[in-house]
Amino acid sequence: RQDVLVLTPWLAPIVWEGTFSRDILNAQYLQKNLVTGVVTFAVEKYWFFIEGFMRSANKYFLSGHPVNFYLFTDNLEKISHLQMAPENHLFVIPVHNDPRWQDIPTSRMDILSSYIHSQFQHEVDYLYCMDIDVQLLAHIGVEIIDTLVATISSWQVTPQHESGAYETHPGSPAAIPEGQWDFHYTASFYGGSVTEVYKLTRACSAGVMEDRENGIEAWWHHESHLNRYLQQHKPTRLLSPEYYWDTEL
Q1: Which residues carry out catalysis (predicted)?
Q2: Is there a binding annotation on residue 6?
Q3: How much is the pTM?
Q4: Which residue of 46, 186, 234, 246 has the lowest C-beta tally within 10 Å?
């Protein structure tokens, strides 16, 4: 494709529709006998999205390949019976709700790193984190598989993006010095090898804790820390905004 950027300055591919052959990638992926995990959180008002997300992800996410879905929720009674594809498995994990709405997103990195260390690293090869309030509308396949994968925010393509897109508070470990920006990544869809996602979540969790100790709250919460980490540890593959499009745009 000539109409979009398909390679980063550090030579990582940017995946757009029409830049890959899914048939070839599927054949290569099947030979490796891999399992991919998907983590999502459904707390309080987000219970409403569980069925829509799970039905669409079960249908469209790495269709035909084994996927473990890890659903964190604070209300197990809200989980209705969901028919999963034969190769997919759903694991429901209880999590406590926090009084402030920011606290579940900011605690998410700590929860993830803990579960990766104790459980997920023994069960999956790759792990992807997605928000629950989304429905997949088309196939997301093995073109997303790589060591460290980030999704370019759909808001990056808007004129008002640069103002306020990055953390600038000098006391926060999430701060990115002016001029060092490249892409803004959404915390709504990222992943990679389970080892690299563990490193990312540990670093972001430590950054969030440092902010709390200093009485700072990053502007975009854990997404600010995610962007700082990915500015220092460049992703090996980027997904275009097509993979997580904000319907407000």
Answers
A1: 223
A2: no
A3: 0.89
A4: 246
